């Protein structure tokens, strides 16, 4: 079974083959469950002209936000971008192309891409700027717009535990967009907190089966809190 061992030992090896102009799908929600070390490796590599698909673009100085510092992102497809001043600046200056997508639609775009479904109809966004230029059909007396699926050259994902074969478990809300992104990348790279021996993961608890995963790396994580709120 050695040929099924998907572990890599360095982040450079984990992102081998990532080139300028590629599309990268990134898991996470805010700063929860983000593949922070894989993002840092993209910054180190200096890969440019990227189209990045993720729920949001991190914050100034952390998460996907670090890729804005050297203008490595050409286009951002996201559902929420309100926590990043540099993002706002580049958008207003015309340096960053942005495609805002309703959150559920974005999730379904990745899920559909991973399932081999090229497009789907949804009522979300009909009658708003989201629907401009998109096909509209009526079903059951209600109007729906056609949305196309999303796939990527790379998917970068943060898991909790995995085995060497790439079976992944996520922890609580850190699951978020990660399993959706994992299915939709031509090359899917997952960084985890722990790699366990085969058989240690309960098969019924596995969120992403290893068939979707190409590379696994074990890392350490800062797990920064986006907004810390305490009682006075």
From TrEMBL:
SUPFAM superfamilies registered for this protein in UniProt: NagB/RpiA/CoA transferase-like
Q: Name one GO biological process term.
A: beta-ketoadipate pathway
Superkingdom of source:
Bacteria
Q: Which PROSITE patterns match?
A: COA_TRANSF_1
Please tell me whether the keyword Transmembrane is annotated for this protein: no
| Keywords, in A-Z order | Transferase
**Which E.C. number(s) belong to this protein?**
2.8.3.6
The molecular function GO annotations come to: 3-oxoadipate CoA-transferase activity
Q: Which PANTHER family match?
A: ACETATE COA-TRANSFERASE SUBUNIT ALPHA, KETOACID-COENZYME A TRANSFERASE
Q: In which pathway does it act?
A: Aromatic compound metabolism; beta-ketoadipate pathway; acetyl-CoA and succinyl-CoA from 3-oxoadipate: step 1/2
Q: What reaction gets catalysed by this protein?
A: 3-oxoadipate + succinyl-CoA = 3-oxoadipyl-CoA + succinate
Q: What is this protein called?
A: 3-oxoadipate CoA-transferase
Protein family according to the UniProt entry: Belongs to the 3-oxoacid CoA-transferase subunit A family.
């Amino acid at each position: 079974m050695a040929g099924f061992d998907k572990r890599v030992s360095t982040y450079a090896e984990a992102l081998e083959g990532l080139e300028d102009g590629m599309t990268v799908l990134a898991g996470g929600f805010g700063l929860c469950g983000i593949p922070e070390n894989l993002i840092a490796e993209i910054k180190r590599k200096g890969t440019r002209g990227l189209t990045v698909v993720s729920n949001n673009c991190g914050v100034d100085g952390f998460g996907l936000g670090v890729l804005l510092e050297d203008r490595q992102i050409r286009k951002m497809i996201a559902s929420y971008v309100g926590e990043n001043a540099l993002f706002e600046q580049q958008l207003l200056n015309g340096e960053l192309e942005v495609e805002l997508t309703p959150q559920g639609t974005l999730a379904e775009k990745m899920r559909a891409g991973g399932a081999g479904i090229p497009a789907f109809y949804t009522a979300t966004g009909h009658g708003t700027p989201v629907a401009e230029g998109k096909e509209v059909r009526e079903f059951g007396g209600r109007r729906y717009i056609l949305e196309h699926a999303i796939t990527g050259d790379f998917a970068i994902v943060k898991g909790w535990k995995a085995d060497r074969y790439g079976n992944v478990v996520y922890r609580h809300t850190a699951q978020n967009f990660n399993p959706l992104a994992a299915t939709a990348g031509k090359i899917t790279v997952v960084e985890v907190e722990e790699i366990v021996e085969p058989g240690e993961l309960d098969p019924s608890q596995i969120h992403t089966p290893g068939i979707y995963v190409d590379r696994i790396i074990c890392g350490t994580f800062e797990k920064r809190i986006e907004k810390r709120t305490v009682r006075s």
